[in-house]
Amino acid sequence: MWDKQLCFLYYRCIGLIQNTGINTSASVPNMLEELGWFIAFLLVFVGVHYQFKYCIPITLWSMKFFEACLIILLAKLYVVFRIYGQRVDLSQLNVFVQNFINATREGLMNQEL
């Protein structure tokens, strides 16, 4: 049954193409190309469906997790610096940044292109 319907559809399309004066030998690859684009559309459509179905909840969970971590970090920093009264030693940060810049500069200079 399906074979008869597909054959009828195929010959109907060929008949329409022949009646319009379009070269049928060039139209078969065009039909295959259009079929390929339709299949690609379906695959992308299914991919986007699963992206919205699963990626949005995962993204929301990740954002909630990182927000919770940030809030706890800010609370810890407040406790350490305001309540315990510890000071920030910026000289160590300055030394670290200088060493990092020097190491990066040496690595780039010694790199062979």
Folded structure, characterized:
The chain is mostly helical. It has one domain. It has three helices and no strands. It is elongated and about 80 Å long. The protein starts with a helix and ends with a helix.
**Uncertain spans:** none
Q: Quickly count the helices.
A: 3
Provide the domain count.
1
Extended strand count: 0
What percent of the residues sit in helical stretches (DSSP H or I)?
Answer: over 70%
If you average the pLDDT, what whole number results?
A: 78
Structural class: mainly alpha
Head-to-tail CA distance between termini: 66 Å
Please state the CA-atom Rg, rounded to the nearest Å: 33 Å
Strand content: under 5%
Largest sheet: none
Tertiary shape: elongated
Order of helices and strands: HHH
Write the layout of secondary structure elements.
Blueprint lengths: L1 H19 L3 H60 L6 H20 L4
Keywords summarizing the entry:
113 residues; mainly alpha; 3 helices
Summarize the structure.
With 113 residues, the protein is mostly helical. It is 88% helix and 0% strand.
